[in-house]
Amino acid sequence: MQKASNRFAEFDSIRALAIVSVVITHAGFAAFRDRRILFVSIDTFQLFCVPAFLLLSGFFLTNKLDNQNNPGQVVKKRLSRIIPPYLFWSVTLYILNNWNSLQKIDLLSLLRNILTGSVMPPYYFIVVIIQCYGWWWLLVKSRFLEPIKVLGLGLTIQTIFTIFFYLSALKYISIPLPLMERWIFSWILPFSTGLFLGAAYDKIQPVLERRKMLVLGATVLFYLASIWEYYLLSGVTAEGWFFRSFFKLSAQGYAILFVLSILAFSKNIALPSRVSGLVKLLAAYSFPIYLLDSTVVQYVLLVFYKFIDPVHPLLKLSFLVTGTLCGCLAIIYLLQKVLPKKYSQYILGI
What we know:
Elements: H1 10-31, H2 37-45, H3 49-62, H4 71-80, H5 83-97, H6 107-116, H7 124-141, H8 147-169, H9 177-180, H10 188-210, H11 212-234, H12 240-243, H13 249-264, H14 273-284, H15 286-307, H16 313-338, H17 341-348
Helix pairs in contact: 1-3, 1-14, 1-15, 1-16, 2-11, 3-7, 3-10, 3-13, 4-7, 5-15, 5-17, 8-10, 10-13, 11-13, 15-16, 16-17
């Protein structure tokens, strides 16, 4: 989740929207669990967030052709901004979560949780993105970077794994979700789409602009289909993780089309300077916010219950999201002030 290039300011908007959606998703678990259509619509809307980050990561790998000349160095540089902060916060939060039983901390358990991205629920994404960088390195070394072939391969693998998800949700087979969602193959289509876009963006972007209403219409249709599929699946399976997951066919299509819609309308979106500044801030700090938000939201929730509860669920969601974002930005700001500049990237990844 590196900073967006100045040449592609539209990706700031995508990254900012994605990190806000991540916070809304995590806050939403505490704000409401009702299946009323409004709440389902809000929850479904967020399903573009993680695929969007994967798509952007793939885009910036292939958009710069020089990356192919030294893929090992590129991967090493990117991992150096991901792994150290991930290790730091994994250990810190593991200790914080087990503070009352420090003497009983199991180092093997900690190591297992770090390797599987299980210290905090959202950390599975770090395991996935590391695999994605390895996958790109393998494609480069194998000289298999022709955009259409990469996209076709990603679509094929994603389809196979999506079939497994449906079979598991419908009880035909038994595959643990925590295992499936940590494999790159469960997320390979958005990453492959990013690789495809990055390699041919100058040709694809004008096409998206000319067909922007068609792209937007398809996005809306897939979004509505994902809401419909939510209710359809909830009637035939009790596995709630699946009918609100990223792995539904409708959700996969919606996630990719949402990003394409932003790209298609990028030249028509004029943000006020203050809003534009906030977008750039959220985009630049998206990775540390991702590392912190699921922890910060728990403390914001305590404040809510102590001083504000009860209110309408939408007001509760607004408070949790705003408080969590402000809390994350405050922590990042303080750490940047306290930490020596050369060590900041090892704690914050920026």
